[in-house]
Amino acid sequence: MLDQNLRDVFLECGCQVLDQLLPRIVLLPSNREAISRLIKIASSRTLHICATGTGQSFPVNYQPKENQIFLLTTQMNQLLELKHLDASVVVESGILTSKLAERLEGTQLDFPEVLSKYSGTMAGAVLGPDTQGLRHAELRRRILGVEIIDPKGRLLKFGSHAIKNVAGYDYWSFLVGTRGRFGIATRFILNLERMPLLDTVPHPGKRSDSLDNPSEWIYANLCKRLDPDGIFVQ
């Protein structure tokens, strides 16, 4: 059973404790401040935090480490800001991508099908594994900014709504597929303007006759992180 003193500490952090999943300690933080406080407490008590959304990336026979805490972000599931003119949106990391797609229905904004069909949270789509690479390729060209809580409990912000934000490191693209090794993501800023489809772009070894505009083909391939030295347009 969970020690009552430790339970009280978690509750004071702003986290709900899921008793039905004991002896595993599973917490539901309500906001990023709760996550920050929890990380600081876990560090002082040598507790290991494992952040997840729906938990679908874990195998059925997964065995948690000693003193491991599972942190579910599913309560942080709000669409915080929607800018139609800028074609951008700010969402919390625990929002389901399918629910976000429903919220964007009827608008002129472009939310890719590869994201709307993903069954997990936005954080899972960004940080989790992607065997085919299409989801990660789409996200790398659409993420404008990210907020994370680092291992010291500090809130770090990278990027902005500006598309031409070229100052500093492209940290948000670096985080794609890292499985939360560098912090717990709390918010994302996404670019929802219409872009060339990645899955219809020809192979770089083929001619670009299938597209009316070769520049679109080059742009889409660069978004796939292909080597531009290997791209030739005849």
UniProtKB/TrEMBL annotation:
MF (Gene Ontology): FAD binding
Bilayer-crossing regions: none
Residue ranges of coiled coil: none
Stretches assigned to the FAD-binding PCMH-type domain: 18-195
Cross-referenced Pfam families: FAD_binding_4
Signal sequence range: none
InterPro entries noted in UniProt: FAD-bd_PCMH, FAD-bd_PCMH-like_sf, FAD-bd_PCMH_sub2, Oxid_FAD_bind_N
Name of the protein: FAD-binding PCMH-type domain-containing protein
Organism listed in the record: candidate division LCP-89 bacterium B3_LCP
